[in-house]
Amino acid sequence: MPLEKNWLDQDKSYMEEAVRQAENAKQIGEVPIGAVLVKDGEIISKGYNLREQQQLSTAHAEIIVIEDACRKLGTWRLEDCVLYVTLEPCPMCAGAIVQARLKRVVFGATDPKGGCCGTIMNLLDEPRFNHSVLLSSGILEEECSLLLTEFFQDLRKRKKSLGN
């Protein structure tokens, strides 16, 4: 099997776990974004958005898994790690990815309003930074997009039924 096929299969497998994490977020009323951080073929950390639960603007899935991985590995340098996330990282998360020195990021759905890994800009490959991150996108894009679309449709329906 060609190496590219192996990578794609591996990416899909880890992204499936990120989707499961996003579904966990949806179950508790959070925006359904999930993330998984992998090192040497092993999931080191997984998580999902907790911004509403924790009332913290920084409680994005990416930040949660990066911080958890740093604690578990005993280092802030995650140079041999790959982050899988269901939605293109925002500027804050893209900055944290660069600061953590991640090797690669794989995301599902693009974010036209806040995506900083290629949609609005690409902070992961900004030549003025001292680190760049490899990037793959569109892995399980339909599933990732559908989770978000359904969540926000349901949210609008609930608000409308409450008269808001």
Automatic annotation (TrEMBL):
Tell me the residue numbers annotated for binding Zn(2+).
Answer: H60, C90, C93
Q: Which UniProt keywords apply?
A: Hydrolase, Metal-binding, tRNA processing, Zinc
The annotated active site, in chain numbering, is: E62 (proton donor)
InterPro entries according to UniProt: APOBEC/CMP_deaminase_Zn-bd (IPR016192), CMP_dCMP_dom (IPR002125), MafB19-deam (IPR058535), tRNA_aden_deaminase (IPR028883)
Task: Give the reaction(s) catalysed.
Answer: adenosine(34) in tRNA + H2O + H(+) = inosine(34) in tRNA + NH4(+)
Pfam families per record: MafB19-deam
Cofactor binding summary note: Binds 1 zinc ion per subunit.
Q: Which cofactor does it need?
A: Zn(2+)
CMP/dCMP-type deaminase domain segment(s): 9-134
Is the keyword Zinc assigned to this protein? yes
Q: Which domain of life is it from?
A: Bacteria
What this chain does, per the record? Catalyzes the deamination of adenosine to inosine at the wobble position 34 of tRNA(Arg2).
Task: Indicate the family of this protein.
Answer: Belongs to the cytidine and deoxycytidylate deaminase family. ADAT2 subfamily.
Q: How does it assemble?
A: Homodimer.
The name this protein carries in UniProt is tRNA-specific adenosine deaminase
Lineage, top ranks: Bacteria, Bacillati, Bacillota, Bacilli, Bacillales
